[in-house]
Amino acid sequence: MLQLDIDCEGPITQNDNAFELCREFIPDGDRFFSIVSKYDDFLADVEKRPGYKAGDTLKLVLPFIKAFGVTDKIMEKFSRETIQMLPGTELMLPEVNAMMPSFIISTSYRPYIDALCTALGFPAENCFCTNVNLDQYSLPKKERNYLIRTAAEIAGMEMIEWPDNATGLDDVQPAHRKTIERLNTIFWHDIPGMEIGRIFQDVNPVGGAEKAIALQKSLERTGLDLKDVIYAGDSITDVQALELVDSGRGVAISFNGNRYAVNAARWAVLSTNTAVIAGLCKLMLEKGTGIMDQIPVDRDGELDTGIMLSEMESAGVHAKILEAIADITGKGKFQVFKVSECPRDKVIAMSEKVRKSVRGHGIGELG
Q1: pLDDT at 359
Q2: pTM of the predicted model, to two decimals?
Q3: Neighbour count for residue 58 (Cβ, 10 Å)
Protein backbone atom coordinates (compact mmCIF):
# COMPACT_ATOMS: atom_id res chain seq x y z
CA MET A 1 0.00 0.00 0.00
CA LEU A 2 1.09 3.55 -0.74
CA GLN A 3 -0.24 6.92 0.39
CA LEU A 4 -0.28 10.37 -1.19
CA ASP A 5 0.61 13.46 0.81
CA ILE A 6 0.15 16.55 -1.33
CA ASP A 7 0.41 20.29 -1.00
CA CYS A 8 -2.71 22.23 -1.95
CA GLU A 9 -1.79 25.52 -3.61
CA GLY A 10 0.18 24.52 -6.68
CA PRO A 11 -0.48 20.80 -7.17
CA ILE A 12 -4.26 21.08 -6.54
CA THR A 13 -5.30 24.72 -6.92
CA GLN A 14 -3.99 27.77 -8.72
CA ASN A 15 -4.56 30.06 -5.74
CA ASP A 16 -2.35 31.59 -3.15
CA ASN A 17 -5.17 32.36 -0.74
CA ALA A 18 -3.15 34.54 1.66
CA PHE A 19 -1.70 36.56 -1.23
CA GLU A 20 -5.19 37.01 -2.68
CA LEU A 21 -6.65 38.08 0.68
CA CYS A 22 -3.98 40.76 0.95
CA ARG A 23 -4.47 41.85 -2.65
CA GLU A 24 -8.22 42.14 -2.13
CA PHE A 25 -8.38 43.93 1.21
CA ILE A 26 -5.07 45.80 1.67
CA PRO A 27 -4.16 48.73 -0.63
CA ASP A 28 -1.22 47.59 -2.81
CA GLY A 29 -1.69 44.28 -1.00
CA ASP A 30 -0.06 42.23 -3.73
CA ARG A 31 3.13 44.25 -3.35
CA PHE A 32 2.83 44.16 0.45
CA PHE A 33 2.52 40.37 0.50
CA SER A 34 5.36 39.87 -1.99
CA ILE A 35 7.73 41.91 0.19
CA VAL A 36 6.78 39.98 3.33
CA SER A 37 7.08 36.67 1.44
CA LYS A 38 10.57 37.56 0.24
CA TYR A 39 11.47 38.50 3.82
CA ASP A 40 10.15 35.07 4.84
CA ASP A 41 12.50 33.44 2.31
CA PHE A 42 15.43 35.36 3.77
CA LEU A 43 14.68 34.41 7.36
CA ALA A 44 14.03 30.74 6.55
CA ASP A 45 16.60 30.01 3.84
CA VAL A 46 19.43 32.50 4.34
CA GLU A 47 19.51 33.61 7.96
CA LYS A 48 17.93 30.34 9.14
CA ARG A 49 16.59 32.18 12.16
CA PRO A 50 15.96 29.81 15.12
CA GLY A 51 12.26 29.23 15.66
CA TYR A 52 11.33 30.61 12.25
CA LYS A 53 10.14 28.41 9.40
CA ALA A 54 9.21 28.85 5.76
CA GLY A 55 5.57 29.81 5.45
CA ASP A 56 5.40 31.93 8.58
CA THR A 57 4.42 34.72 6.20
CA LEU A 58 0.86 33.57 6.88
CA LYS A 59 1.31 34.51 10.52
CA LEU A 60 3.03 37.82 9.85
CA VAL A 61 0.30 39.19 7.58
CA LEU A 62 -2.66 38.34 9.85
CA PRO A 63 -2.62 41.53 11.98
CA PHE A 64 -2.68 43.59 8.78
CA ILE A 65 -5.53 41.57 7.28
CA LYS A 66 -7.54 42.14 10.46
CA ALA A 67 -6.69 45.85 10.48
CA PHE A 68 -8.38 46.22 7.11
CA GLY A 69 -11.63 44.74 8.37
CA VAL A 70 -11.36 41.07 7.48
CA THR A 71 -13.35 38.79 9.81
CA ASP A 72 -13.62 35.01 9.96
CA LYS A 73 -16.88 35.20 8.02
CA ILE A 74 -15.33 37.40 5.33
CA MET A 75 -12.33 35.07 5.06
CA GLU A 76 -14.60 32.04 4.68
CA LYS A 77 -16.76 33.72 2.03
CA PHE A 78 -13.79 35.03 0.07
CA SER A 79 -12.08 31.63 0.13
CA ARG A 80 -15.22 29.84 -1.02
CA GLU A 81 -15.84 32.26 -3.89
CA THR A 82 -12.29 32.46 -5.23
CA ILE A 83 -11.15 28.83 -5.38
CA GLN A 84 -9.54 28.05 -8.72
CA MET A 85 -8.80 24.40 -9.33
CA LEU A 86 -5.83 23.36 -11.40
CA PRO A 87 -7.07 21.63 -14.57
CA GLY A 88 -7.64 17.97 -13.80
CA THR A 89 -8.12 18.38 -10.04
CA GLU A 90 -11.74 17.16 -10.10
CA LEU A 91 -10.45 13.96 -11.72
CA MET A 92 -7.20 13.56 -9.82
CA LEU A 93 -8.05 13.99 -6.15
CA PRO A 94 -11.15 11.74 -5.96
CA GLU A 95 -9.38 9.11 -8.09
CA VAL A 96 -6.28 8.99 -5.88
CA ASN A 97 -8.29 9.15 -2.65
CA ALA A 98 -10.23 6.09 -3.84
CA MET A 99 -7.08 4.07 -4.55
CA MET A 100 -4.91 4.97 -1.53
CA PRO A 101 -4.96 6.99 1.71
CA SER A 102 -4.57 10.63 0.74
CA PHE A 103 -3.73 13.72 2.77
CA ILE A 104 -3.51 17.42 2.00
CA ILE A 105 -0.64 19.11 3.85
CA SER A 106 -0.92 22.84 3.28
CA THR A 107 0.28 26.11 4.76
CA SER A 108 -3.07 27.60 3.70
CA TYR A 109 -5.57 28.92 6.21
CA ARG A 110 -8.24 26.50 7.43
CA PRO A 111 -11.21 28.40 5.87
CA TYR A 112 -9.68 27.98 2.42
CA ILE A 113 -8.98 24.26 2.92
CA ASP A 114 -12.48 23.70 4.29
CA ALA A 115 -13.93 25.39 1.21
CA LEU A 116 -11.81 23.15 -1.03
CA CYS A 117 -12.89 20.00 0.81
CA THR A 118 -16.54 20.98 0.44
CA ALA A 119 -16.10 21.63 -3.28
CA LEU A 120 -14.34 18.31 -3.93
CA GLY A 121 -15.95 16.08 -1.31
CA PHE A 122 -12.51 15.45 0.21
CA PRO A 123 -12.45 14.49 3.92
CA ALA A 124 -11.48 17.54 5.99
CA GLU A 125 -10.04 15.26 8.67
CA ASN A 126 -7.33 14.27 6.17
CA CYS A 127 -6.05 17.84 5.94
CA PHE A 128 -3.25 19.52 7.86
CA CYS A 129 -3.29 23.31 7.53
CA THR A 130 -3.00 26.62 9.39
CA ASN A 131 -5.75 27.16 11.94
CA VAL A 132 -6.79 30.76 12.51
CA ASN A 133 -9.61 32.61 14.25
CA LEU A 134 -9.34 36.34 13.61
CA ASP A 135 -12.47 37.24 15.57
CA GLN A 136 -11.02 36.23 18.92
CA TYR A 137 -8.41 39.02 18.85
CA SER A 138 -9.05 42.60 19.87
CA LEU A 139 -7.47 45.41 17.89
CA PRO A 140 -7.42 48.85 19.55
CA LYS A 141 -7.77 51.86 17.27
CA LYS A 142 -4.18 52.95 17.91
CA GLU A 143 -2.87 49.55 16.80
CA ARG A 144 -5.16 49.51 13.77
CA ASN A 145 -3.85 52.90 12.66
CA TYR A 146 -0.26 51.73 13.10
CA LEU A 147 -0.91 48.62 10.98
CA ILE A 148 -2.63 50.60 8.22
CA ARG A 149 0.30 53.05 8.04
CA THR A 150 2.86 50.26 8.17
CA ALA A 151 1.16 48.24 5.44
CA ALA A 152 1.62 51.22 3.13
CA GLU A 153 5.23 51.57 4.24
CA ILE A 154 5.97 47.91 3.48
CA ALA A 155 4.22 48.06 0.11
CA GLY A 156 6.46 50.98 -0.80
CA MET A 157 9.70 49.16 -0.02
CA GLU A 158 12.09 47.99 -2.70
CA MET A 159 12.05 44.21 -3.21
CA ILE A 160 14.74 42.59 -1.08
CA GLU A 161 17.60 40.91 -2.92
CA TRP A 162 20.70 39.00 -1.81
CA PRO A 163 23.53 37.08 -3.51
CA ASP A 164 23.16 33.33 -3.99
CA ASN A 165 25.96 32.61 -1.51
CA ALA A 166 24.55 34.83 1.25
CA THR A 167 24.44 33.30 4.73
CA GLY A 168 23.23 36.28 6.73
CA LEU A 169 22.57 39.99 6.93
CA ASP A 170 26.24 40.93 6.48
CA ASP A 171 26.17 39.51 2.95
CA VAL A 172 23.28 41.77 1.87
CA GLN A 173 23.80 45.13 0.17
CA PRO A 174 23.33 48.09 2.55
CA ALA A 175 20.02 49.30 1.07
CA HIS A 176 18.44 45.85 1.28
CA ARG A 177 19.98 45.29 4.72
CA LYS A 178 18.26 48.45 5.92
CA THR A 179 14.91 47.13 4.63
CA ILE A 180 15.38 43.81 6.41
CA GLU A 181 16.33 45.59 9.63
CA ARG A 182 13.19 47.73 9.39
CA LEU A 183 11.06 44.62 8.87
CA ASN A 184 12.78 43.03 11.86
CA THR A 185 11.68 45.99 13.98
CA ILE A 186 8.09 45.81 12.71
CA PHE A 187 7.61 42.07 13.12
CA TRP A 188 9.77 41.25 16.14
CA HIS A 189 9.54 44.42 18.24
CA ASP A 190 6.56 46.61 17.38
CA ILE A 191 3.75 44.11 16.74
CA PRO A 192 4.72 41.64 19.50
CA GLY A 193 4.37 44.55 21.96
CA MET A 194 0.74 45.14 20.93
CA GLU A 195 -2.46 43.39 21.98
CA ILE A 196 -2.77 41.97 18.48
CA GLY A 197 0.75 40.57 18.87
CA ARG A 198 -0.73 37.56 20.66
CA ILE A 199 -1.70 36.24 17.24
CA PHE A 200 1.99 35.56 16.56
CA GLN A 201 2.11 33.26 19.58
CA ASP A 202 -1.13 31.45 18.79
CA VAL A 203 -0.95 30.83 15.05
CA ASN A 204 1.43 28.13 13.86
CA PRO A 205 1.54 27.95 10.03
CA VAL A 206 1.96 24.46 8.61
CA GLY A 207 5.09 25.12 6.59
CA GLY A 208 8.70 23.96 6.64
CA ALA A 209 9.32 21.61 9.55
CA GLU A 210 5.60 21.60 10.39
CA LYS A 211 4.86 19.93 7.05
CA ALA A 212 7.37 17.20 7.89
CA ILE A 213 5.65 16.77 11.27
CA ALA A 214 2.25 16.60 9.57
CA LEU A 215 3.63 13.97 7.22
CA GLN A 216 4.72 11.85 10.19
CA LYS A 217 1.27 12.25 11.74
CA SER A 218 -0.35 11.01 8.53
CA LEU A 219 1.88 7.92 8.71
CA GLU A 220 0.79 7.29 12.29
CA ARG A 221 -2.78 7.16 11.00
CA THR A 222 -2.07 4.77 8.13
CA GLY A 223 0.62 2.65 9.77
CA LEU A 224 2.78 2.96 6.66
CA ASP A 225 6.45 3.94 6.36
CA LEU A 226 8.26 6.78 4.59
CA LYS A 227 9.12 4.42 1.73
CA ASP A 228 5.39 4.13 1.07
CA VAL A 229 4.82 7.89 0.67
CA ILE A 230 4.34 9.80 -2.55
CA TYR A 231 4.76 13.48 -1.67
CA ALA A 232 4.03 16.30 -4.14
CA GLY A 233 4.89 19.92 -3.36
CA ASP A 234 5.98 23.05 -5.17
CA SER A 235 7.59 25.62 -2.85
CA ILE A 236 9.99 26.45 -0.05
CA THR A 237 7.38 25.33 2.51
CA ASP A 238 7.65 21.76 1.14
CA VAL A 239 11.43 21.38 1.36
CA GLN A 240 11.65 19.54 4.69
CA ALA A 241 8.81 17.17 3.77
CA LEU A 242 10.35 16.43 0.38
CA GLU A 243 13.75 15.81 1.95
CA LEU A 244 12.24 13.58 4.63
CA VAL A 245 10.40 11.44 2.06
CA ASP A 246 13.47 11.19 -0.17
CA SER A 247 15.69 10.20 2.76
CA GLY A 248 13.18 7.46 3.62
CA ARG A 249 13.22 6.11 0.03
CA GLY A 250 9.73 7.40 -0.70
CA VAL A 251 8.82 9.33 -3.84
CA ALA A 252 9.56 13.06 -3.53
CA ILE A 253 7.97 15.03 -6.38
CA SER A 254 8.32 18.70 -7.23
CA PHE A 255 5.15 19.56 -9.16
CA ASN A 256 5.72 22.75 -11.16
CA GLY A 257 8.06 23.63 -8.32
CA ASN A 258 10.27 26.64 -7.78
CA ARG A 259 13.99 26.23 -7.18
CA TYR A 260 13.50 25.29 -3.53
CA ALA A 261 11.17 22.41 -4.36
CA VAL A 262 13.14 21.13 -7.35
CA ASN A 263 16.38 21.05 -5.38
CA ALA A 264 14.73 19.06 -2.58
CA ALA A 265 12.91 16.54 -4.79
CA ARG A 266 13.93 13.35 -6.56
CA TRP A 267 11.55 13.91 -9.48
CA ALA A 268 10.53 17.19 -11.12
CA VAL A 269 7.14 17.01 -12.83
CA LEU A 270 6.10 19.81 -15.18
CA SER A 271 2.47 19.77 -16.25
CA THR A 272 -0.43 22.11 -16.92
CA ASN A 273 -2.85 19.41 -15.72
CA THR A 274 -2.72 17.72 -12.33
CA ALA A 275 -4.26 14.48 -13.65
CA VAL A 276 -0.70 13.27 -14.16
CA ILE A 277 -0.41 12.85 -10.37
CA ALA A 278 -3.24 10.31 -10.44
CA GLY A 279 -1.52 8.51 -13.30
CA LEU A 280 1.76 8.35 -11.44
CA CYS A 281 0.09 7.20 -8.21
CA LYS A 282 -1.72 4.33 -9.99
CA LEU A 283 1.43 3.38 -11.87
CA MET A 284 3.50 3.15 -8.69
CA LEU A 285 0.73 1.43 -6.75
CA GLU A 286 0.51 -1.34 -9.35
CA LYS A 287 4.16 -1.66 -10.37
CA GLY A 288 6.07 -0.36 -7.34
CA THR A 289 7.79 2.96 -6.73
CA GLY A 290 10.90 1.63 -8.46
CA ILE A 291 9.12 1.78 -11.82
CA MET A 292 10.12 5.42 -12.14
CA ASP A 293 13.80 4.41 -12.18
CA GLN A 294 13.12 1.82 -14.88
CA ILE A 295 11.75 4.30 -17.43
CA PRO A 296 14.53 5.46 -19.79
CA VAL A 297 15.88 9.01 -19.45
CA ASP A 298 17.66 11.09 -22.07
CA ARG A 299 20.92 12.93 -21.52
CA ASP A 300 19.02 15.77 -19.82
CA GLY A 301 17.52 13.39 -17.28
CA GLU A 302 14.04 13.54 -18.85
CA LEU A 303 11.91 10.42 -18.70
CA ASP A 304 10.37 9.07 -21.90
CA THR A 305 6.73 10.17 -21.56
CA GLY A 306 5.62 7.79 -24.32
CA ILE A 307 6.89 4.79 -22.39
CA MET A 308 5.47 6.25 -19.19
CA LEU A 309 2.00 6.54 -20.74
CA SER A 310 2.25 2.96 -21.99
CA GLU A 311 3.21 1.79 -18.50
CA MET A 312 0.28 3.75 -17.03
CA GLU A 313 -2.12 2.12 -19.47
CA SER A 314 -0.87 -1.37 -18.61
CA ALA A 315 -1.17 -0.49 -14.91
CA GLY A 316 -4.89 0.16 -15.37
CA VAL A 317 -4.93 3.94 -15.07
CA HIS A 318 -8.51 5.18 -15.54
CA ALA A 319 -9.32 6.05 -19.16
CA LYS A 320 -10.35 9.62 -18.27
CA ILE A 321 -7.01 10.17 -16.51
CA LEU A 322 -5.10 8.77 -19.47
CA GLU A 323 -7.08 10.97 -21.82
CA ALA A 324 -6.31 14.07 -19.75
CA ILE A 325 -2.61 13.18 -19.66
CA ALA A 326 -2.49 12.36 -23.37
CA ASP A 327 -3.90 15.80 -24.14
CA ILE A 328 -0.88 17.46 -22.50
CA THR A 329 1.97 15.37 -23.86
CA GLY A 330 3.26 18.19 -26.03
CA LYS A 331 6.73 19.46 -25.23
CA GLY A 332 6.77 21.63 -22.12
CA LYS A 333 3.29 20.52 -21.04
CA PHE A 334 4.02 17.13 -19.45
CA GLN A 335 7.60 16.36 -18.57
CA VAL A 336 9.26 14.38 -15.80
CA PHE A 337 12.92 14.82 -14.88
CA LYS A 338 15.16 12.80 -12.60
CA VAL A 339 16.62 15.67 -10.62
CA SER A 340 19.97 14.01 -9.90
CA GLU A 341 20.61 13.56 -13.63
CA CYS A 342 19.20 16.77 -15.10
CA PRO A 343 20.80 20.16 -15.83
CA ARG A 344 19.42 21.66 -12.62
CA ASP A 345 19.34 25.35 -13.56
CA LYS A 346 17.66 24.60 -16.88
CA VAL A 347 14.98 22.41 -15.35
CA ILE A 348 14.33 24.91 -12.55
CA ALA A 349 13.83 27.65 -15.15
CA MET A 350 11.44 25.42 -17.11
CA SER A 351 9.54 24.40 -13.99
CA GLU A 352 9.19 27.98 -12.78
CA LYS A 353 7.96 29.01 -16.23
CA VAL A 354 5.17 26.42 -16.10
CA ARG A 355 4.43 27.42 -12.49
CA LYS A 356 3.92 31.05 -13.55
CA SER A 357 1.87 30.11 -16.61
CA VAL A 358 -0.48 27.98 -14.50
CA ARG A 359 -0.76 30.14 -11.39
CA GLY A 360 -0.09 33.63 -12.76
CA HIS A 361 3.11 35.63 -12.63
CA GLY A 362 2.48 37.29 -9.26
CA ILE A 363 1.82 34.04 -7.40
CA GLY A 364 4.42 32.13 -9.43
CA GLU A 365 7.14 34.51 -8.23
CA LEU A 366 6.48 33.73 -4.57
CA GLY A 367 8.80 31.41 -2.65
Answers
A1: 82
A2: 0.94
A3: 28
